[in-house]
Amino acid sequence: MTTIRKKIIQTNAASIRLQALKTGTINQVLKHFAAALITHAPAILHANKKDLQQMDTGNPLYDRLLLTPDRLKAISGSIQKVTKLADPAGKVLEKRTLPNGLLLEKITTPIGVVAAIFESRPNVVADIAALCLKSRNACVLKGSRDAYHTNRAIVKVLHQVLKNHELPASLVLLLPPQREVVQELFTATKYIDVIIPRGSNSLIQYVRKNSLVPVIETGAGVCHVYVHSKADVQMAVSIVVNAKTSRPSVCNAMDTVLVDEAIAPVFLKELTTALQQEQVVLYADAASYQLLKGYPWLHKARKEDYYREFLSLACAVKIVKNEAAALQHIAEHGTKHSEAIVTNDKKTADLFLQLVDAAAVYHNASTRFTDGEEFGLGAEVGISTQKLHARGPFALEKLVTEKWVLRGKGQVR
Amino acid sequence: MTTIRKKIIQTNAASIRLQALKTGTINQVLKHFAAALITHAPAILHANKKDLQQMDTGNPLYDRLLLTPDRLKAISGSIQKVTKLADPAGKVLEKRTLPNGLLLEKITTPIGVVAAIFESRPNVVADIAALCLKSRNACVLKGSRDAYHTNRAIVKVLHQVLKNHELPASLVLLLPPQREVVQELFTATKYIDVIIPRGSNSLIQYVRKNSLVPVIETGAGVCHVYVHSKADVQMAVSIVVNAKTSRPSVCNAMDTVLVDEAIAPVFLKELTTALQQEQVVLYADAASYQLLKGYPWLHKARKEDYYREFLSLACAVKIVKNEAAALQHIAEHGTKHSEAIVTNDKKTADLFLQLVDAAAVYHNASTRFTDGEEFGLGAEVGISTQKLHARGPFALEKLVTEKWVLRGKGQVR
């Protein structure tokens, strides 16, 4: 047995220690963790410097990896917030007495051991550990090599807090950043209950393909805003601009704008005025290309551009005949993440909200709201684009499973 | 593209037709299906005869495969029951107005396309198709070669009913029984939302290992009854006998009885008197072997016997020191299916119910109750032994996913 496997087994064995822990106790642990991150800021920032030294300052990941006292305060504050969220475990979801007298309850319980594989950003390790502990799950964390010293320093602080509360450090296991250790996760079906990959699409596909442990994908978002013929043009422009430009690097940013041909000339004219200021690059289909002529960052769209998650100040444009064509385009090109319609016609909006198959569907609002905090759920492990267990923001409330508890007086069948 | 893939794509495209279907309409379809199974009984029984002719009458699967007019009536009745269950789709799970004025709702929606891979029994094809249609899911069904003519005859009846309601037959796709077609399911991540293997452990492991589509395991049950030192001996005997002998071939039957050493001599004596009548074979650890000497069907247990799902009139026996030892044994050997404790000590019972990690945990009742009908949920697709999405009976209520629906007035972030 490998050392890694042994550690995973220890984490699994320790997980039972969390099951009976009271809400107040776990909140105390998290409060101390939040405070300790500030007390130990020098050590953490020092470790972060080590990581940064190994990265080229021109690397786009450099800023994501960089910790400052302020950023560390934000991480600490985010853990404080988790202490204020409702306890997801121990909720009675159903309760009834069966005809034979058995008292049946369905109760939320911790999942057990949650594994997360993630890239760069140092807040992720603290966030996921805090969410797992709050929901009474042990966790196995595998960050990227780039952030290893930082992650290790943060987890070291947490281990000390756990020990102070007489809880085993093995409840939070940080794995070394070698890719080989991931294989140990994938085959540990007996000891790990779920694996959550958070990061690039290639990471997610790799995990999906190789893991025997159930996976919750927190996937890529190819998101659309559909501007219907009965849209308020000003509102449509404002939503599209926001969905594309407010934070282009995130999964809920818009990738393609679809516009009804009836409204296209007016809408595209207004839109380009706004997008021009942000120098947004447009990939346009033949019909919209004609209307957009003269726009300085214009390209002809290739078929594959409609499958792209741009993650930058660029988007695709397509003119559609009607709502049926828009729905069809989204069904083919969307990734079931976030989809919006802008229209003043309630019937069309309702049809869109019902028929579009996505985690979050919007009428007259920006796709950018798909987010745990925005939805009032608190921090999230990621945005799930699959349909089982968690869909959309995968937040604290979904870090539990269910258990059927039956109390009898000797009933047999 | 293969013919099978084309058909799967058709099924996916058709699935949208179900989304807007009213509860009353789908119940009508199912009622007609139930009635048509009786009207077309001769054709179905004829097809069943064809399947049976290819099987040796001595094969233990022969009786499972055999359809009679009465069994067909039972299948029809089971579909009638599905029409009476509450509609799982369209339930508003959450509803609130966000601080920015967005109206947020979380609503249950159909999963989309559900694939099931199953073995022998002809009721499965009708049950799963009915549950999927009721929950507005299209389905892709792959039965065993043994039952192919029967399955095809049943699906043919359903296709005619769908056509009579102007619904596409492609909503229910029955695949040919070649194993190769399963590969098409495993890679159809864009068109199939979940695969449910229902059958032997080797089938389930094969699907788990090879599918890129998320899988819900409906797995094997290595189930325990733990007789605590403060158990009512008569009750314990009655529960163990029922859990082992009432239907040994099913997953919720007991496989190992654990007994506290303090109560073991009395309990085992009473137990053997009862088990002897059923000729139950016992695999005993060293300590219980001594106490059981003279019992006619007694073996020494090997380590691996405690990992066995017997599915027959046989079980393992082990004497444990106390509840901690029992919990540890179950954690190591259980499959997280159904676990029971017999005791009059409430505190020990509560500890057991909390700490045992299983889909269903019982105090003073038989493990045999883990079943959708028994729990009041109706027919089930299987018993899930995993922790995500559905745990325990995977019934109609879980054949849905969730969708976040947001209605705004132009909100941007």
How many domains comprise the coordinates of chain A? 2
Overall residue-averaged pLDDT value of chain A: 95
Largest interface: A-B, 65 and 65 residues
Strands in their spatial order, largest beta sheet of chain A: 10-9-11-8-7-12-13
Order of helices and strands of chain A: HHHHHEEEHEHEHEHEHEHEHEEHEHEEEE
Task: State the end-to-end distance of chain A.
Answer: 43 Å
> Roughly how many Å is the radius of gyration of chain A?
24 Å
Helical percent range of chain A?
Answer: 40-55%
Write up this protein.
Two copies of one chain form a homodimer. The first copy, chain A, is an alpha/beta fold. The first copy, chain A, has two domains: 3-217 and 386-407, Aldehyde Dehydrogenase, Chain A, domain 1, CATH 3.40.605; 223-369, Aldehyde Dehydrogenase, Chain A, domain 2, CATH 3.40.309. Chain A has 14 helices and 16 strands. The first copy, chain A, has a seven-stranded parallel β-sheet, with helices on both faces. In chain A, a hairpin with a 7-residue loop joins strand 14 (380-384) and strand 15 (392-395). The longest helix of chain A is centred in the first third of the chain and has 17 residues, at 3-19. Chain A is globular, with a radius of gyration of 24 Å. The model of chain A has no long low-confidence stretch (mean pLDDT 95). At the A-B interface, helix 10, helix 14, strand 13 and strand 16 of A face helix 10, helix 14, strand 13 and strand 16 of B. Strand 16 (400-411) of chain A pairs parallel with strand 13 of chain B, so a sheet runs across the interface.
